[in-house]
């Protein structure tokens, strides 16, 4: 049994309150994840998790083991970094996590740049809109959009991710125009799960006045791409991250609605584990990303 990997699965399962979600996050099968937890329980000689159709929680022993496991996973990561040190330089595989939209549109350009200039760097990309626990999931670097939340990490601000309220030009030819905030309620709103879940969107006017407006949230998707395609097909209007709709806006396929108002931008941060020393390959990549990402965001904000 690989004790460290079993502990990693256990920690992630506790934090996600689900074996299947933990398996998905870690890129392994659900049966493999369940087997690792079961072997871990046999190894320690007690039940760590209580699982049933309605319940998923730690036993008292499991809660204590969870806290210790988090500490051990961090210590293992630090130990590997310390002994590898300068010998590895920029060699080795770096695990980078990012939300789906950013990861699918912006990250490929960054990977191309990294591989062109540092071909010895191996990269493993993990895309998910869920909050990533860097230690539990063995992630070296993570892009986080929006609230930082808590956790043992160091955050480097990269700028803002702008968002646009858009519709396809074909849609606007068939429907009433959106000239005022109150007009939004007459249009079907297409969104991504968890975003604008209250049925309201926030806009900021030219004078800096913040307005909350009701929308008819009739279609939601768990991934940005179906939402984008439905907007493109003229099914409704929606809010997209700037890098997702920049090309469609530039070519005239999309039009921005209520250009006198802005959807609040989201903070973009680069996270690394709060470990010392930081591996050379991670320091190198972080340095490159901090210089290149703001430029990419600036390019995408045009048009």
TrEMBL record:
From the broadest rank down, the organism's phylogenetic lineage runs: Bacteria, Pseudomonadati, Pseudomonadota, Betaproteobacteria, Burkholderiales
List the keywords (alphabetical).
DNA-binding, Transcription, Transcription regulation
Q: Which residues form the HTH lysR-type domain?
A: 1-59
Coiled-coil region = none
What PANTHER family does the database record attribute to this sequence? HTH-TYPE TRANSCRIPTIONAL ACTIVATOR TTDR-RELATED, HTH-TYPE TRANSCRIPTIONAL REGULATOR
Query: Can you name this protein?
Result: LysR family transcriptional regulator
Question: What Gene Ontology terms describe what this protein does at the molecular function level?
Answer: DNA-binding transcription factor activity; sequence-specific DNA binding
GO BP annotation list:
DNA-templated transcription
| Family note | Belongs to the LysR transcriptional regulatory family.
Keyword Transcription regulation set for record: yes
């Amino acid at each position: 049994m690989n004790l460290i990997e079993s502990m990693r699965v256990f920690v992630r399962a506790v934090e996600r309150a689900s074996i299947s979600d933990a398996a998905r996050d870690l890129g392994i099968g659900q049966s493999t994840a369940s087997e690792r937890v079961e072997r871990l329980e046999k190894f320690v000689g007690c039940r760590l998790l209580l699982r049933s159709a309605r319940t998923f929680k730690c036993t008292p022993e499991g809660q204590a083991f969870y806290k210790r496991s988090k500490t051990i996973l961090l210590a293992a990561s630090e130990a590997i970094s310390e002994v590898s040190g300068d010998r590895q330089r920029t060699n080795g595989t770096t695990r980078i996590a990012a939300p789906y939209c950013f990861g699918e549109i912006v990250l490929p350009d960054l990977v191309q740049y990294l591989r062109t200039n540092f071909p010895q760097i191996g990269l493993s990309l993990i895309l998910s809109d869920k909050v990533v626990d860097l230690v539990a999931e063995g992630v070296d670097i993570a892009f986080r959009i929006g609230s930082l939340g808590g956790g043992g990490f160091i955050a480097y601000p990269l700028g803002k991710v702008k968002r646009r309220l858009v519709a396809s030009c074909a849609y606007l030819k068939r429907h009433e125009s959106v000239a005022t905030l109150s007009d939004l309620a007459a249009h079907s709103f297409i969104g991504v799960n968890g975003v604008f879940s209250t049925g309201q969107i926030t806009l900021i006017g030219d004078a800096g006045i913040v307005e909350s407006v009701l929308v008819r949230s009739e279609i939601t998707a768990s991934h940005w791409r179906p939402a984008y395609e439905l907007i493109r097909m003229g099914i409704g209007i929606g809010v997209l991250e700037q890098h997702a709709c920049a090309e469609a806006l530039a070519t005239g396929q999309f039009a921005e609605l209520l250009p006198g108002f802005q959807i609040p931008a989201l903070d973009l941060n680069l996270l690394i584990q709060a470990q010392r020393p930081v591996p050379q390959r991670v320091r190198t990549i972080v340095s490159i990303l901090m210089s290149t990402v703001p430029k990419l965001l600036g390019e995408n904000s045009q048009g």
